[in-house]
Write a structure and sequence with these properties.
226 residues, alpha/beta, five-stranded parallel beta sheet, 11 helices, globular
Length: 226
């Protein structure tokens, strides 16, 4: 029995970029491009009609940009996963999109096979973001608001118990569930349960947002050699 294909919506204000993405992804038998949108407002309407599993979203668009659109889409019931498209690695706009609920990002010049792999990963519930790139982004965005952000993050994390905090740090370090389980001498199933509770307690969408919050709170400073 053939598995149901991943339903993908493309959002970019450049019709040539959309055509190129549709062409390169069209060869993947397990992914179906169900629509194309030119901006965030159009994306919102198309998500209602086509119910995609994943949205490949440009950040910079006229009218409604990718960050605003991501925040709106992730607030919907049965929200699709969002992967943002960008031209820069260390782009503060990417960080804003991740805080809005995106599961990761890919560069526009990423090889087609890697974009297809990214779509598959987020459809399976895995973030598309390496710990090194996460730290690069967050260091890039660090500035005058860092102290206030740290205070807010620590206040939010205060609802976690000690074990949940340890798991959150493991997520922030980019460890998979098995790696966290090995370090804390608990089962993988227990780690999964803790991650689910952390997401629920903090009102977060995904592991990327746990990592961002742990970083903001200063829990990962030792990872950066501070």
């Amino acid at each position: 029995m053939t598995a149901t294909p991943i339903r993908l919506l493309l959002v970019d204000d450049d019709p040539l970029v959309r055509a190129g993405l549709a062409l390169m992804i069209g060869g993947a038998e397990d992914i179906e491009v169900v629509g194309e949108a030119a901006d965030g407002a159009e994306a919102d309407e198309l998500v209602r009609r086509t119910r995609p599993d994943v949205v490949l979203m440009d950040i910079r668009m006229p009218s409604v940009d990718g960050i605003t659109a991501t925040r709106r889409l992730r607030a919907r019931p049965d929200a699709p996963q969002v992967v943002v498209l960008t031209t820069f690695h260390a782009d503060e706009q990417v960080l804003h999109a991740l805080r809005a609920g995106a599961a990761g990002f890919v560069l526009k010049d990423t090889p087609p096979a890697e974009i297809v792999a990214a779509v598959r990963r987020v459809a399976a519930g895995d973030p598309v973001l390496s710990p090194a790139v996460t730290r690069q982004l967050m260091r890039h965005a660090a500035g005058t608001a860092a102290d206030a952000r740290q205070t807010r993050a620590r206040e939010r994390l205060a609802v976690l118990n000690d074990r949940e905090r340890e798991v959150a740090v493991g997520v922030g370090r980019g460890l998979a569930n098995a790696g966290i389980a090995a370090e804390l001498f608990i089962s993988v199933a227990t780690v999964k349960a803790h991650v689910s509770r952390i997401l629920a307690k903090l009102g977060l969408d995904n592991r990327v947002q746990i990592a961002l919050l742990a970083y903001d709170a200063g829990l990962l400073e030792s990872e950066d050699g501070h």
